[in-house]
Every structure is written in structure tokens, then in C-alpha cells.
Amino acid sequence: MDILLQLLMSGIALGMIYAVIAFGYQSTFATSGTLNFGQGEALMLGAMVGLSFSGDILGGPYLNYWLMVPLVLLFGALQGAVVEFVGVRPAIKTKSEFGWIMSTIALGIIFRNTAENLWGRDDLPFPSPLPTEPIHIFGANVLPMELMVVVGAVLMMVLVELFNRRSIYGKAVVATSSDRDAAGLMGINTGLVITFSYALSSMSAAFAGVLIAPITLTGASMGAVLGLKAFAVAIIGGLTSGLGVIVGGILLGVAETTTGFYISTGYKDVPGLVLLLLVLAIKPSGLFGKTTIKKV
Amino acid sequence: MLEVNHLKAAYGQVQVLHGIELKVPKGQVVTLIGSNGAGKTTTMRAISGMLKPTGGSILLGGKSIAGLPAHRIARIGLAHSPEGRRVFPTQTVRDNLLLGAFTRLTFGGRPRGDIRGDLDRALDLFPRLRERQFQLAGTLSGGEQQMLAMARALMLNPDVLLLDEPSMGLAPILVEEVFHIIERLKEQGMTMLLVEQFAAAALAVADYGYVLENGRIAVHGPAEQLRNDPKVRAAYLGIAH
What we know:
Chain A is mainly α and 296 residues long.
């Protein structure tokens, strides 16, 4: 029983990381119908930039973890804006249906290679800002950093939701998501809203990067698998549902930790991907997604 | 206030407008009538920037707006209540109205003015919307959505208001209400360009009219004169001569 609880807790923490990255996929999909397939690399860059400030790899630490986080968020936002400007905007302008897929993947590879050259290919430890002694909750051992992951992820999503509902700029983002042409008639610069959604998307990935880095290792290749699994979460939960990515993330996270323990770590990725295939076969819009009919 | 010269527009390779000329003087209501496919909606879309014109000039209050993106044209002072209403269905009626005032609520936009007062006046003009202020716009009936689209356009405090088929798909009693509201806006001095399928009603409220045929202006003149023009009567007003 205790073991199961332990696996659940770890699964939830991992799942919330997936949820934060998947949330980023949703944000760009809502405003522009496009996705940043370099989300995993945005996460990795966030973690590496964070490590450069707060780790000892470049002669640091220069800043403590809490002061580093805002800088990483800012970096993530800028990185996302660059991806939109270089990779996505031209594809939207020419009404290319698929150009953005290749260009965001290409940018992701470029970012990964750059990171390998800047920081090397080895995985590096990331100093934890919280005690590394586990705390006991209902008999399970939980790392303080794992709690921090859950709190940080929920906090970020709540803040974005408040922004969307309360501020006129957030309302403009929602309006752009539901009808881009009509939003333009309101005087909303929808191109800028799309850039903003890319900034938000990479910012959330970078945030996920500095949340997870102290639990795992940091390295140029850390993002690829996380980005792909978060994409699976976005599909499982539904690309349009905020609740969907949280539930989908936790489902996948728990499926991985339990399979890893009860069956074999070699198979830990299988149940989540089977779930993905099932969802695609039975409810392609995702567990919580609304079915949309593409008008031609 | 609004002056359109040699306006040309196309969807892909298909030329739809072949040089439209029209003028909307300040404080007047001008209507654009014509059969389906004549290019009425395309003219409106080309003016407001929803569609990039392929040629010609458009002056709004003396400023050239042809080819600008829609959001910049809105900031210069043109509001467009588009065909098909296009309200934001997942947001409340009130939020839709506030989005109409987006250019006034944000940095570098139109003069702020009395937004709260204008919101109140819009809700006075459309009492049904006041009752439904906090409802999601997607849950409104077609008629209510039309009212919302018009109220939302008014919230821009525009110099020129484009109304595209405000009566489309509405029950006869609501059509009457929509025209009543257009009449009231006219009394308040609003400059309007109105596209309507009910040509008779449109010519009754308008000062001046243009008849569009195959992407060209076929006839134009004071509304009174068009109402009595035998050809217009036969083709668009359903009255034999």
C-alpha cells in the first residue's frame, strides 16, 4: 500500500511537468492552430540557462534559485517569440498548412545542437533549492521539490487563467482563439497575440525545465522525450481543455511510475503510449476535448 | 468621412470587385444593395481590412486605409459588424462588449472616453443584452447575437460603422427592431454604411444608395430617387412597374 502511494505521488509530480509542457502546446494551438514541436528543447534551454545562473558550471553560482526563475521565464518568453517570428509567422502568412511543423522541428534541433556545443553532451546535476531529505506524507516519501513541482505548475495555470478572464489583454487572447478575423475587427493585433502565445508556451516549458531539473539531471538531450510525452498528454487530454492536460498528465505520469515498478522500467513508456493510441482510436478529440468539425 | 475609389478585390484568382466608387458623408446613412454574389459583403470586407484589396484607394476621415490590417483600421475609427455576427461564443456578453472597446482600453489606441457610460448606453439601446450581460454569447439566440454584434461595434465609438446584413436570418419582428435601432443611431448622428437584403427597408432608412451588380456600381443616387426608379423597383424591391 505504501509503495503504491509512493508511486502515485511520484507519478503526480511527473504528470504535472507533462501538464505544464502540454499547456504550452495548447496555448499556441488555441491562437494559431499551430504547435511548437521544439517545446522539449525550450524546456531544456530553460533548465540549462537556469543551471548557468545557479549552478557552478560557468564559474557560478551567480544567483540563488528563486532569483534565477524570473530570468529563466523571461528567457523562455524571448526564445518562444523568436521561434514564432522565424519559424511560424512565414508559414501562417503564406497559409501553409504544414510548413510550421518542419520549421519548429528544425529550430528544436538547432537549439539542441547549440546547447550541446555550449554546455557539452553530459548530464549535469542541478543543485536543489529545497532540502533533499524526503518528507513523509501518509507513509510515502515525497521530495520537497516534488511538492514544489505540483504547487508551481498549478500556480502557473491559475495565473494564466486569471489573466485570460480578468484582463482586457487576456480577453483579447481568448477572442483571438475563438475568431481571429473578428478579433482583428476589434482592433486586436492578432499577429502579436500569436507571438505572445508562443512566448507563453516556451515560458511554461522553461519553467517546467527549472522545476524538474533538480529532481532529474540536466543536459542537452533532456527535452526530447519530455516534449514528446507532453505532446501525447495534450492529445490524450484534448488540445482545447485545460483540465484535460492535468488529468492526462497525471494519468501518464502514474502509468509510468507504476509500470516501472510492477512490470519493468524497460516498459514504463508503453502504457501511456497505448493510452494515446486508444484515445486516438476511440475519442480523437481527447478525453476532455470538444469535437470540432473542420469547415471547408 | 469614408471615400472609396476604384476599389478592386479578389478571392484568389477570382476578381470579385471591379472598381467600386462610393462615398459615405459624415452623419449620413448610405446603403449598398444588390443581389446575392454581387460583391456587397466583399466590399465591406475590403474596406475594413478583413480582405486585402488588390487595387484602389480608401480614405477614412482623410487617412488612406487601403491595405492596412484590420486592427489598424479599427484604431483609426472604423467599426465593422460582420456578416454572420461573429460574436465570441465562449465569452460573456459583457466581455464581448468590452472587447468592442479594446482600442479604447489599451495603450496607443483610441481616446478612452466614457467607457462605462457607453456600455450603459449600449445596454439601454439593446435591453435584451442587459438581462443577459453575464451569459456566454454562444448561448444567445440568433437575434440576440445580432444585437450583440451591433452593440459591440458601437463600443469602438467609431467614426464610421459598417453593418453587414444585420437582419439576416431574423424573425420579422426582430428585423423591425433592428431597423428601429438603425433609425435611432441615425438620429444620434452615426455615420453608417449598411448592406441589406431587405432593399426596401434599407432605402427607407438611408440617405443615399448604391446598387451593386457583378462587382460594379450599376446605379446610385439619393435613396428617395432609387425608391422611385422603375428598374430598381423591379429588380430589388419586388414591385412590378
